[in-house]
Amino acid sequence: MADDAVPISTTVPETVTIQTGADKETLGDLNKQFADFWGEEDSKAGTPPNEAPAAPALDGAGAAQETKPEKKPEPPAKPSTKEASTPPPVQQTQVPPTATPDKRFSDEEVEKLALPSRAGQPPEMQADFKQLKALWQADRTRLKAAEQAQAQLQAELAQAKQNAFTPEQKADYEHAATVRRRFDFISDPEFQQRYHGPVLNQFQAVLQEAVNVLPDKGAAQQWAQHILTNYTPDQLNKGWWLNSVIAKVPNELERQALMGSVTELLKLQRERDTEITRRTSDKSAFENWMTEKTNAASERVKAEIMSEIGEQEKQIQEVLPRDPEAAKTAEERSAIEEHNARFQRLNGQFVERMQDISKNGPRAWVRAAVAATRASLLEEQYNQVAEELRTTKAERDQLRTELDKIAGARRKMAASTGTPPASAPAKNAPLNGSLSIKDLDVRKSFQSFWGEVDRTQQ
Q1: Between 125 and 119, where is the model more confident?
Q2: What would the pLDDT profile of 408-421 be if each residue is shown by its tens digit?
Q3: How crowded is residue 443: how many other Cβ atoms within 10 Å of its Cβ?
Q4: pLDDT band at 59 (very low <50, low <70, confident <90, very high)
Q5: CA-to-CA distance for 369 and 363, rounded, in angstroms?
Q6: pTM of the prediction?
């Protein structure tokens, strides 16, 4: 019997197909969609997806290249027929038995149960029976509630199992999340400027250098333009540069210089790919990069705000705070303290407006724009009133000059005659509905009036 036992096969098939039940159109081919992300897999494999054309060269020009025969992979071993036809054993899951209420009696039947009366029966037996029936009914109620809760939990568990990812779906999700992290990181403008930009610049410089050292300049120009249009640096590996470009250069010194430029290009590509792997290898690394980026952006915004505040302070020197210790008198110190209190009030309004713009977004932008427009309108009105005030003061000064002339003429006339003018009463005459010489001194009256106006406007 031992000799008839079938030996266990140790051959493992290379591919295993698992039916996940997922819709192919929904999942999509993620590897195909992101195959153009700089041909990373092609670069690792050592062969570009589409072989780029070699650089043009004259017959016999360039260094000789050694060609090695390509090895063909051996076909995979086929699994045994008996092993493939034997289905795997199906594991049966045992459901734990659930407690069920007593099916022999319904609630109405339990309610109708009663203890028959017999001769010589103790009176407390009926009370004990009623208490026992009440306890039974309470237990039946608790059991029904527990069964309902269990049924709800089982339904939620079944729903959770339906919504849970299978291992294949989880793997696809992780791959999609990794691709999304790579896409977000690669699309960042700072990364483009710091890492990918130098790669593209070096790639163009290498092609231009190859055009300058290749024998046929016209064909080399067309070839370089074709490479720039149809290929990226990641689609051209080291072997292609050596065999298809550097080997076509006839001059040894120019060939070594071109090799140095290609080496620099490959170095920049490695640095870029290393940064991508470091920042997107897992979720925590990507979140750390997002935090660093947010903090850097915040610091940059803060620095720009402080710089612009310094520029704008040059235009509002008259409202900036002053040092009270520099006051020489008590009145000057009081004026400086009042000026500083006004500045603190205005600065508080400025800080509130800046915080509103920073926190509330577009709505705050509209409010700030409206406030700036109203301030511009008020400034125009203020300038208009100030111009009217200057005109009024000029007219006042002109009237004051004319009044000075009139008062001077009256004084000369009074001094030469020794008597007041005929139109005026005698000096110190009682005011019987008439005016004295003092009252006719219009200059003093106007000086007093305009002095009061000046003090009010100050």
Answers
A1: 125
A2: 888 888 887 765 55
A3: 17
A4: low
A5: 10
A6: 0.45
